[in-house]
Amino acid sequence: MLRTLSLVLLLLASSAQTAWAQNILVEKYDVEIPKEFFVPYTGVYADRFPDGFTVGIGSGMTYVGKAEDGARVFYAIGDRGPNADAPKFELDGKATASKMFPAPNYAPSYGAIRVKDGHAVLASLITLKDARMRPISGRAIPIGSVGSTGEVPLDDSLKQLAFDPEGLDTEGIDIDKKDKRFLWICDEYGPFIAKIDGYTGKIVRKYTPGVELPMIAASRQPNRGMEGIAVTPSNKVLAAIQSICDVDGKVKESKATFIRLMLLDPETNQVKQYAYPFEAKNYARSADAMIGDLYAISETKFILVERGKNADGKGRIPVFVIDLADATDISNVKAKDGGELETVADRTEVEALGVRYVAKTRLIDIKEHGWKPAKAEGVALLPDMRTLVVTSDNDFGFTFKVVDPVEDADGKPVTKAAAYTVDPSGQVKYKGRPVNTRVELTPTGTASQIWFFTLPKRVTDY
User: Fold this and answer.
1) Rounded Cα distance, 52 and 160, in Å
2) How far does Cα 283 stand from its chain's mean position?
3) Which residues fall within 8 angstroms of residue 267, CB to CB, at 6 or more apart?
4) CA 134 to chain centre
5) How far apart are CA 366 and CA 319, in angstroms?
6) Domains, in order of start, for the chain
7) Which regions of 300-373 does DSSP assign to beta strands (E)?
8) What are phi and psi of 428, to 5 degrees?
C-alpha cells in the first residue's frame, strides 16, 4: 500500500499520502502481491518461506493507460528469478563462476500493476514460453554459447543444475506500437531482444548478438546486458546495454566515456548504435556506471534512468531526457588504431573521429526526493508529460549470507561467496581445504515499489 513520506507539506487522503518538495509531488507505494503469484519453494530453507518467494516484479515497466474504473495500469516484468551469489563451481577441475537458483524452474514473468485508491496491486502474471509454448527458465545459458555469462547454475544445496539454452534474464518491457497484442522485452544474458505475444507469453522472435544484433553487444559485462527497452511511435526499438562494454578484457581499468544504445528497426532488421555519455564524475570507475531503464517520448527523445556506484560513496539516481536526433551512428566507427571506441579514454578524441554523443538534459535525481530502494529498475512517463513513474524490484523477498565463514590470513572473516569453491558433491572449500561454510537464504519482507514524481513542468520544457 501507499507508504508514508515525510516532507515539507503533507496532504492526507484516506490511506494515501502525497507531498510537495521543491515543487515536485511524490507518491510512493509498495506493490502488493497476491499469494497466488508467489513462487513455490520446497528447497533447503523452505521452512523460512512458508508461502514461497514473493514474486519479484519491477525490473522493467511501461505505462498502459487508465482502466474504466480509473486505475492507472502498468506492465511490469521481473528478472530471471530467485537467485543468489554462490561459491565458484569446480567444473572439470576449474573454478568457474556460479549462481544459485533456489527455485530453478521459475519462468521469468510479466504482469499488470493497477494503482488505485491508495494501493498498487499486481493484477495478473504471465510466464514466458518458447516457440513450443514450454515455459523457459531464468537459469544460465550454456557456457560457450553466444551471450553466456560463463556461470554454472546451482541449486540451494550447491549442486549443479542443468543449463537452459532458452534461459533469459529479463529486464525491460514495452508495447508494440503497431499491434498492442505484442510486447518487446530485453535480457541481460545474451544480451537478447525478444518480441512476445502479450496474451500468452510466447516468444515469437528473438534477436541475438552476431545474428540480428551487432556482435559487440555480446561484449557486455556479465549480467550487464540489455537493461532497458523502449518502442518509438513508429515502432523502432531502442535498447540500452547496462554498462560499458568489455571490448578488450580490461574493463576494470577502462576509461570508456560512453555506454552503447542500440536502435533496432524490426521492419528492416537494421540496427544503429549510439554513444550515451554517462555522468563520469559520479563514478570511481567507468565500469561502475549503469543505466536503469528507458521510456520513449518521441522518435528521438527518451527518458533514461542512470544509477550505479559513485566515487564519493553516495547514491545518485539521476533521470534525464536524452535525444538521438543529432547523435552519430557509431556502428562502423573505430578508434585510430582500429580498436573499439571504448578503448579511447578522452571524449574529445572520440569526437575528433566525427562522433556526436547522445544529447541529455537532467530532470531530477530521485535520491534527492526520498527514493529509498537500492535500485531504480523501471521508468515510465504519464500522458501529462510531467509525471515520472519509477519501480524497484524486491529480489524476490530474500537475501543471502555466508554462514560460518573462515578467516583469511589477516584473521578477517571471508564473507564473499565467490571466495570459496564447491565441488560436484556440494562440499564447500576454501583454498582447496574443505570447510563448513555455507550460503543461507533469509527473508527480507521487502516489497517492490512504484513511485510517482510529478515535476513542475513538462519534461520537454527542461
Assistant:
1) 22
2) 19
3) 235
4) 24
5) 7
6) 25-79+105-138+169-394+446-461 (2.120.10)
7) 301-308, 318-323, 359-365
8) -85, 140
Is residue 12 pLDDT above 50, yes or no? no
How open is the CA angle 206-208-210, to the nearest 5 degrees? 150
Residue whose C-alpha cell is 534474464: 169
CA 405 to chain centroid? 30
| 41 touches 154 (CB < 8 A) | no
Cell numbers for 398, please give them.
530474500
- CB–CB of 90/423 below 8 Å? yes
User: Contact 287/243 with Cβ under 8 angstroms?
Assistant: yes
**How many residues does this entry show for the chain?**
462
- For the whole model, what pTM was predicted? 0.93
Residue 11 has pLDDT above 70, yes or no: no
Percent of the chain with pLDDT over 70: 95
DSSP 37: G
Residue with cell 518491457: 173
Strand order from edge to edge, sheet including 193-197: 170-175, 182-187, 193-197, 203-207
Give the contacts of 145 (CB within 8 A, at least 6 positions apart).
165
What pLDDT, in 10s, does the model give residues 253-310? 999 999 999 999 999 999 999 999 998 888 989 999 999 999 999 999 999 999 877 7
Provide the strand spans (E) within 46-87.
Answer: 60-66, 72-77, 84-85
CA–CA dist 381, 63 (Å, integer):
7
Q: How far apart are CA 288 and CA 244, in angstroms?
A: 9
Of 186, 184, 388, whose CA–CA distance to 303 is shortest?
A: 388
Alpha-carbon dihedral 154, 449, 392, 304, rounded to 10 degrees:
160
